Amino acid sequence: MGNPATGPAAEQAESGPRQRGATIAQVAAQAGVSITTAWKVANGRSDVSLGTRRKVQAALIDQGYRPRSRNPRRTRLIEFVVHELESAWVLELVKGVQQAARANRAALVFSELEGRVTPLDSWLTDVLERHPLAVVSAFSVPPEEHRKSLAAAGVPLVAIDPVTELADRTPSVSVANWNGGLAATRHLLALGHRRIGMISGPPDILCGRARLDGYRAALDSAQVPVDPELIRHGDFLVGGGLREARALLALERPPTAVFVGNDIQALGVYEAAREAGLRIPADLSVVGFDDLPLTPWMGPALTTIRQPLSDMGAAALTMALNIANGEPPPHSEQIFPAELVVRASTAPPA
């Protein structure tokens, strides 16, 4: 026998104005579905077709409906969504996420998107069936329909370094990417470089665009013209760094320094320099971004921009749990500072 204080019948029986918004019956009437179906969607049940779920979600949002109480089946699971697990960047985030989860006696469930930055509809169905406390998404953002479904089910979402602007102000944790790009380029300018190449990430990725904008701003403030042929878009992978660095070094007037959008691509730049018979930093200075554990061991040790990935992961999970406990953060976005770490890969131009 079900709990008499919960379920569609109990919510239908409510009378008078609700402090939390409309009744489930009003939501069902607007969506043109049964009260049971509306209740299932409102409480995170996955056994509703996608089309029906979208209609009910729209009614839930329009009516300002909130479930009477938190789902009694909610587990102490945190859904951690990543674009891929074979990433040194993700592994640093995992350290912080796991530490915070352990401190809060929560467990992690990993969802790998196999390189995609947007989950499939099947992912949403699986998540709703697991009834997690919250979802933390790293370098990947569920589409708007998924975000609405999670909100309707009372499952908060926090994004780490979201790949795109989020119009619905989904809470997020990131680093000061623009400031990092500015600091990296200013460091090279201070050394005397004027032909500074930039290997960014994909043009549709938010953090890559911000780092590129910081690069441009540094050149503008130093009254150094921005040369479009010195700007290349990589893929944040070693191969992309190698490909784009080869193209830069093949120019009639190649750069004397390169700012690379992440440390992994910097590995490709090192290989391109070796192929061209160039020495780092005597012939080519290189600055990366991330400060992954491998960077002090590169030959030579890489000058880079540090983002505190472990701290960012811990902050995102803590934020998600606080929201799940009814304690929304004072600001929807938490931005960590970006710090220049000078090592052996930069020097004045020859």
UniProtKB/TrEMBL annotation:
Q: Does the keyword Transcription apply?
A: yes
Q: Where is the HTH lacI-type domain?
A: 22-77
Does this entry carry the keyword Kinase?
Answer: no
Any one GO MF term held by the record is: transcription cis-regulatory region binding
Concerning Pfam families, the annotation shows:
LacI, Peripla_BP_3
Question: Which segments carry the region annotation Disordered?
Answer: 1-20
Keyword set, alphabetical order: DNA-binding, Transcription, Transcription regulation
Protein name per its UniProtKB record: LacI family transcriptional regulator
